Amino acid sequence: MILRLMSPAFQSAHFILFDLDGTLVDSAPDLVGALDALLEMHGRAPVGLAEGRTMIGEGAARLVERGFAARGGLPLALDDLVPDFVARYEDRLTRQTRPFPGVIETLGALAQRGLALGVCTNKPDRATARILEALDLARYFTSVVGGDGVRKPAPDPVLRCLAGLGGHPGAALFVGDSPVDHAAARAAGLPVALVSFGYTAIPARDIGADHVIDRMTDLLDLIDRA
Hints:
Largest sheet: 7 strands, mixed
Number of helices: 9
Number of strands: 9
Structural class: alpha/beta
CATH architecture of the largest domain: 3-Layer(aba) Sandwich
Strand order of the largest sheet: 1-9-8-7-2-5-6
Shape: globular
Number of domains: 2
CATH class of the largest domain: Alpha Beta
Strand content: 5-15%
CATH superfamily of the largest domain: HAD superfamily/HAD-like
Helix content: 25-40%
């Protein structure tokens, strides 16, 4: 189901930018698995998948910070914990991570329609590239911007990704799952569609996006109606 929350969202989209975690791929099992392993190493109880998935967003440091905050606070400086988390996560990048249902079908259909597609994520560049390649998603994207530089919610990575497609905000749409995606896209001047199945403690319908979709395949109807 497609829910229109604000109007007008867009008249036509020739360029579509996607968030990665919680939007294209269900990476929570591997992200939370790495976080729980780090927590347990420091004598803390794991957060588990249900709680941990709401902590994902804004990069690795924020996930580690949120995880330890929920279990008594940081035992060390955050800068000392993050490299350990990243190493643990890189050992299991695609152990359980998979595209959400309908993602491959939707990307293929969008490519057939001649739309240019990009990925804009806060995940580190190397991990982003490895996941896209391992899951056979890289072939769909002309522009990929990871989180090694300025990260969302700043508009900079969104605009960089769009520039890599040769696009402009008036002909583009951002598809994400969180307030971070919404804020970044809004600041860059793009309309926003949020998925309802992603990683956010705030329900997608309460964030203020132009559209909320319950299945990735709903994006095709949204584009066709524009």
